[in-house]
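FIELD: query
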Amino acid sequence: MKTLISILISLLVTGCGKKQPTNSNQDKNPPVPLPYQKAKKETPSKNDVNNSTPENPLSEVTPRPKITLAEAEKVAKNLQAAVEMENSEMVFRLIDRDILIGRAMPKSLTDAQQKKEIIAGARTAFKEILLQNLSVGTYQFLRVSGTPDGVQATMRLIFPNGGVNYHHLVLGHSVDMKPCVVDIFAYTSGEYLSQTFSRLITHSMPGAKLPDVTAMQGIKQFEDMTMAMQKGAFSRALTIYEGMQPNWKQQKTTMQMRIVAANQVAVSNLQQSQPMGDEYRKAMEDFRRTFPNAKNLSLLLIDFYTLNKDYKQARAAVDQLDKQVGGDPYLNFIRGNIALSQGKKQAGKDLFIKLTKDMPKNPAPYFTLIDLALMDKNYKEVTRLLINTEENTPVRFDPDFNGIDSYKDYLASPENIKWKAYKKGGK
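FIELD: result
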């Protein structure tokens, strides 16, 4: 159970286990070797669940006394700082895993020993996996807002490949009455962490009408599928899915894992100039038919529509996600990539330029603008962008860009003299 829960936390937090999600239409990291030195993360300036709902649905989001907006913001910002410092002790002072796990325990779980083992496995898995997955990218506080039940804090997780996930932190009080996070709504799963745990626990418990051997076979197949995904064996994961028992194949988490695996297979096929295949479409259609009101559909559909070159629908999915999270300027990075895929270079550039103004410390739009300027052989613009990137972000470029071929002509141009002069007297 511990191994299974560990993998599940990875899936919920990042989207597809230890692999990074691809919910932007292309990988916008500079090629390897990188033309710059990797820098430490910098703290930003202050500037529908149907049959998946657990037996004990969330009651009051914020137990009394109510958490204030100021308290929620403080917890969220402290969590951001703890993740940036990779301070596990601080993270678990802010996220009360015992309350979260307790919320997930289904009422039908009456076996005391089984419950004890599940709780122990979940506690260990949280300690080992949660921080590791939150720190794979840039975890940032966005805002706090009131809800019918109290308050929530919204966080954004930007992955190195430009992909994005969002969390709504549910605020409550620890046993010593300090404000803390008691649950997390993850956009990749479209539900609360406790809900997913509860459903998984319930599904893994042998039922009265289901022989233990059959139940254990279903659990084993689920574990095999998640392990295959962790290893990057996505075709194997899809094969395992096809052989699963019907009740496991229609389980929400399993269907979402199938989408992730099918997405990776489709991307791999396209990168090898092969047909994308039909499995991704079938996986998405089955999920939409089973969960038509799933709150993570907009996030899931961005890649689906983009890979199918339905850019109008891809843009609509981004706009819907933007509305769901209460607005996020970073989504212009994905809109810009969609525009480039449509051949609308200037529209894409305008969106990246806007993002450099809205989020000046984020290097992603600068990298794309530099790539575009290099392709246009606009070397004066390349110099300007290189300097702006170093002055506004933690990135520091190698003077000769580590020999990357795309910079070869730039290094032979007169603009390289200005760049070298900047590097000698610059940062």
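FIELD: remark
The longest helix spans residues 112-134.
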